[in-house]
Each structure stands twice: as C-alpha cells, then as structure tokens.
Automatic annotation (TrEMBL):
Transmembrane segments: none annotated. Gene3D superfamilies: NAD(P)-binding Rossmann-like Domain, ornithine cyclodeaminase, domain 1. PANTHER family: KETIMINE REDUCTASE MU-CRYSTALLIN (PTHR13812). GO terms for cellular component: cytoplasm. It holds the Pfam family OCD_Mu_crystall. It comes from Flintibacter hominis. This is Ornithine cyclodeaminase family protein.
Length: 334
C-alpha cells in the first residue's frame, strides 16, 4: 500500500523558511548547470489568457515536471493564474499543487500546496541570481514594480542576502504600495520609498518587474549601466528597448523564456533567438560563465520560472514532514 503525505500551506510554512529556500534554490541552480537536474520545458494549457483560445476564464495552467539529482527526487507542479473567476470570488491570482514521486518505485510520496512555495521560490531565485552577478557587493538599491504577494517575497529574499539601503516601489494602485511599505518596513534595512511614476523606480542596482501587466510600462531609456533588470512577468512589462538595449541577456530556461513573458513577441518577430542569450542561470551558478563587471553593463535577466525549484523545495518539505510526522496520509491505492 502506498501512503501519500498530504501537506497544507500552514504546515509547509513551518517546515521551510525563506533562508532554507534560498539555499535550496542555489543548490538546484548549480545542479542544473552541471547537467544533473532535469527540467523539461513547461507544458501550457491556455484557458483564455491569450489568443488564439477564446475561453472566457482568462486563465492559464502549466505542468512543470522535474527531477532533482541532489535529492534523488522527481515531481511536478501543476500551477496557474486566474484573471477572472478567482478574483471575482476574492481568491489569489495564483493557485498550485505539487506532487512528488519516488524515481525508482513510482510511489507518489506527497501532494502539497504549491502556491506558497511558488511565491517564495520566485523571490528566492531573484536574490540568488543577483548574488551570482554582484558577487561580494552587499549594499544595494532596488526598484520594485508590483506591491502584491510576489513583491513581498522578492523583498523578503533580497533582504535576507543584501543590505537594501533604498527600495523604491511603484504600483498603479497607490493604496497597495502604501500597505506594502507598512507591511515590509521591518524587513528592509534602509528606506522604502513609494513613488508615483514608474520612471522614479528605475534608477537602482536591481530593477524588478513582477506584475500581471499586459502592456509595457517600463522604458528601456530609463535603465542605466550598472543596472540588473529582472523581467519576471508572464506577459509584457517593458518596451523593446529594455530588452534589445541590454548588453547581456540571461535566462533560467531558454526554451521557456522565448515562448512566454517579456521576450515572446520579439522571439516571434525573429529579433530575439537562442543565440541572443548570453548564458543560463545554471551556467552562472556552476561557474561555467562569467558576466564581468556589472557596473559597465546593462544586464537583463528573464527567470520565467522552472519546476525544478518548486520540486526541490517540496522535496525538502516532504522529508522534514516525514521525519517529524507532519501532515495527513492517504492511500490512493487502497
């Protein structure tokens, strides 16, 4: 009989912290760069979030399988964003489940909430990548676009690694930005500055767009040399100059990045190809590529999101849960 552990969000939060997740993400990037971890391109189910599907749900689901070599763990995240129905009933945009499977015996080891892990590892990946790029630099400034859940996890992760002297935050809903400032003041070592125009957040060491925007609002002409720009949205947040004007383009997964998010339309027009990508995050993590002095460059990082990070975090949560007796068990094959 196969006993599968079921884990709720509240239980996962007690098993892994942001610092744990930062370490897990770092190890997984290195493993991926060394060719050990396996991360296939995600499979997308379009439920009406973009053409040509004309379904009314304004939603999209991704199947994101992975094998984590350093854990000897396999699994998949089944995750999506809902722009209509969930918002109408007051639920968060993102919803997800993660399933873990024993790579040898095929037993489903765990099924757990994936939304919290998604948000946390999305923040962690930015901080870890920035550490690869900035090396020993500790004091930084940040320009953050989006004062929602992922804006918060970005901030939590960055402040766990760096001394954030100034964090400029822009959100088209001023009340959201004001609440973000109040909620995050104990995380940020320096000052949180709410700005009323997107240009005012663009002069920083790290500029991060983590929004559901479908129309470009960040202009490339605002970005200066010495800036690392993280384009993290699933749609279109920046103009073409922000992309084409970058000295180096770094992706987490080349295939995924060219078919979704900020690079999609330029890839479709043939203006961005696989040859445009300087390196992957895995290659950076494994020491296979170096970017040089960031101060002399505009760097563009597009981490569209990989299932291996979710499965790796879930794998550690599962093992801790198993050892501590946390969660319920269910025998699907009973």
């Amino acid at each position: 009989m196969m006993n599968t552990i079921l884990l709720k969000e509240s239980e996962i939060k007690k098993l892994v912290s942001m610092r744990d997740i930062i370490e897990i993400v770092d190890k997984t990037f290195v493993d991926l760069g060394e060719g050990k971890t396996i991360n296939p391109t995600k499979l997308n189910l379009n439920l009406g979030d973009s053409e040509p599907t004309n379904l009314p749900y304004k939603a999209s689901l991704n199947a994101m399988p992975a094998y984590i070599a350093w854990q000897d763990m396999a699994g998949q995240k089944w995750a999506g964003g809902w722009g209509k129905g969930r918002r109408e009933i007051g639920r968060p945009f993102i919803n997800a489940l993660i399933m873990l499977v024993h790579p040898n015996y095929g037993d489903f080891l765990a099924v757990m909430d994936g939304a919290w892990i998604t948000n946390m590892r999305t923040g962690a990946q930015t901080a870890v990548i920035l550490r690869y790029l900035l090396k020993d630099k500790k004091d930084i400034t940040v320009g953050l676009y989006g004062a929602g859940v992922q804006g918060r996890t970005q901030t939590e992760a960055l402040t766990a690694i760096f001394n954030v002297q100034k964090l400029y935050v822009y959100d088209p809903v001023p009340a959201a930005a004001a609440k973000f400032k109040e909620d995050m003041k104990d995380y940020v070592q320096g000052e949180i500055i709410v700005v009323d125009h997107p240009q005012k957040a663009a002069k920083a060491d790290a500029v991060i767009t983590v929004t559901p925007a479908t129309q470009a609002f960040l202009k490339g002409e605002w970005l200066e040399k010495g800036t690392v720009y993280f384009a993290m949205g699933s749609y279109q947040e920046c103009d073409d100059q922000a992309i084409l004007g970058a000295d180096k383009l770094i992706c987490d997964h080349v295939g995924q990045c060219l078919h979704r998010g900020n690079l999609k339309h330029l890839a479709e027009e043939g203006k961005i190809t696989e040859n445009s990508v300087y390196c992957t995050v895995g290659e950076l993590a494994a020491g296979m590529k170096q970017v040089g002095d960031v101060a002399d460059q505009k760097l563009l990082v597009v981490p569209i999101g990989m299932g291996c990070l979710d499965v790796a975090v879930a794998g550690i949560a599962y093992r801790k849960a198993f050892s501590l007796g946390v969660g319920e068990t269910f025998a699907f094959d009973e």
